Structure prediction request, 461 residues.
Amino acid sequence: MQTILAVDDEFSVRKSYELVLGDAYRLLLAEDVAKAFAVLEQQHVDLILLDLILPGMTGLEFLAQLQERGELTPVIVVTGSNTVQTAVEVMKRGARDFVVKPFDVEDLLRLVDRVLRERREQLELYALRERDAAGFEQIIGDAPALREALAKARQAMQVDSTVLITGESGTGKDLLARAIHCGGRRAAGPFVPISCCAIPEQLVESELFGHMKGAFTGATETRVGKLEVADGGTLFLDEIGEMPLDAQAKLLRVLQDGAFYPVGATKTIHVDLRVVCATNRDLWRTVREGGFREDLFYRVNVLPIEMPPLRKRREDIPRLVAHFVAKHAPHVNARCESVAPKALAHLAAYGWPGNVRELENTIERLLVMHSAEPVLQAEHLEGILPGTGREAARGVDEFEGLPLTEATDRLERHLILRALDRADYVQSQAAELLGTTRRILKYKMDHLGITPPGEPDDEAG
Prediction:
């Protein structure tokens, strides 16, 4: 349901708006500009109906402030003046149209419908542009584990079933969620992210479901929740494992019936949306420990996708490094165009507990600290990346002067052979030492031409 904010100091006019618009739209009322701004700061609004003669600040001054703030919400001025000068002035200040009081109900309804339809079309255009910029091309890499996750995501894109993205912090779960939204049939609708761990526990329900004025201490205004804002699009619940149990019960009803009550409300709100969840927890373990509802787990775990940690897709590090150099160098005025093979070998060998996010932050830090260098060298990593002092640097001299792909292949071959040797060539054990799966290890061995002395031990895993 679209939301209209009507600003008028006359009670009779506000009452008329309720009678004319209250059934078809979510209607918010304000008698002056100060209260109108308070509403805009807290809630999403699709259209503003604005009187020009208001206490404290005129409607024209309000329009001017909206322009200064970059507010894109369309405004229809409803005024008692029908002069050409008034019409020109309000249009110059950014109003979409104007209506003369006393207004004809049918004319007002037609105008409201037209302006809201144009607004929807504008938002759809923005969404299509966002879709072009935020799709799967933003997820860099070609490792088997990542390809598997992306293949599942493309399948999920075709349906509206709930998706649960798991993986360690920094692996790109938010990017994958946005890619699923942008590639699906709801791409023209809103993508509304909410971090369940960033909201105080007592405010989670209000943030998700909204609340009515006076519902609790401090609820001075009615507030639209994120579920309603996401109507027609996708709600992304990041770190859903942190959601309080009371809110989990209400969310379960939304997933089952598409309906909920805002806090303090007696009227049900129905929404049509798709839910994508993410967590860095073992959610099933959290269920067993009593921290997550078992019935909700089955509802959100319809289409599970695991984002692999960076240590399980080391072959993607050269491409990621090149991407982050190109991304950040212009913004920090760095001259860097590439990374030396020896430095890249160190980057590929590091464990990256913070995953892709840590790698990106490290590259940005290097660019800031060595902005005058055209090529980042291994010595530039000292003090930034653990295990990259002078002693460690002498261990990668063999990579000097090699192309990036060849240096990466040599490093991977060295690490795989060492793990195989330690595991007596039992591939499942070697894969565990490398923090990957046997299938991915076998893929890498075939790619690098590594042939074990015999295959009988393969079946030991």
Notes: The chain has 19 helices and 16 strands. The longest helix spans residues 105-133.
